[in-house]
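pasting for the record
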Amino acid sequence: MNSGKFKNSLKYFLPSSYQLKLSVTNIFTRTLFILLVYLSYFLILSQIPEQMSYHLELALLLTSAFALILYLPIIERLTRYIRTRFLSEYLTEDAESYRQAIKRFNFDALIKNVFPDMVKITGSHSGTMAVLTQNGTFAFHSYFRGRQKKLSPTKDIIVKTSFQSFLLTKRNGASVAETYSHENINNDFMELHANYIYPFIFREKLFGFIAVSNIPNAEAANSLSLLAGQSALTIHNHILSYHISENKKYQKEAEYAVRVQNLLETGTIPELLGWKITAFKRTNRNLIEFFQVEDGSWFFVILNAGKSYQHIGIILSYILGVVYSQSRLRILKGFSDIKSLIQSTFQKLDWKENYELIIGKIGHSELYIVQEGKQFRITRNAEEVVASMGWKNMINMDKGPIIIQQRGEPLLKFNFEEPEIK
């Protein structure tokens, strides 16, 4: 009994939140750096004869050289090791470190590094993560006090449809206390040994979830939301990459297209003050995505591959998934970044066919559009062409709605009415 009280008291005084642990890490490494510099200074000073001219200045110069060439790289390496070991490198406040970490945020990193980080962030001693597979089932991974393993399929853990629907309504996570009035859902929590579950949701689809033994505080829950969002995008892109690799030789195109059809819907259209945006029926040759960039501006991309193969939709969805994930990380800044990212992604896929695109920005009461490709037409009043290829076109909306067409078929319609000031 006394031992339990002592552990609880000790846990109370130890840092538990991510920010506090980060502060302790910074204080420790910087204090260590200062101590090393001071000790080196006095050690070097003791070895220089006092009769020598400028012996203080010489000691200071040599100490500075040691600090910059030797101590600083060691301290930086030690800091990275401590943060990776005890914190999450994906939640660092340093922009450059964050960018490097995100570049390594792939499917393997999700399983090996991010999953344990998420369990640690909540202060839990155990956790279970479910990941959607390319076959539509879920693979389960467990973590218990530093030990991690993939659960055998013979465990027969099934994610029921009712449980998936429940998680889709709990985008910000759910505790076991919220399930007392739902016996079946409560039983699912008990089977997972979970007191708290956070879902991985992207485009209104469940790509997985993490179940932990401890209910996190508000700060830990916010950290979970950041990692969960990126995890959903990572799983989404992993599934699409699998189908793309399976379709390298254009075999079984229809079968694989059906498997990922629900991933290929037009992105959610934003509701912006004064704007009414309408999406028309699309074909598998083109795909549309809306997203925000670093300064909060809304952009949209329309991609057209010009071919009617079933696998084209899979490839376009993968490319726009990459664009969307980069925009969520606030890495994209404008037209040139978006265009360069799309071009580089096509190159990585070894794409030899022609493709066309439109990149647009939604302003206060105007559209900015860059068009590449002859199949697109941007018109007003059915006849007036309001955009030229290869140029950044600014289109004022005060003369009527704008329709973007592809081979005479409408794709998007933009209408703007100045909101009334009440």
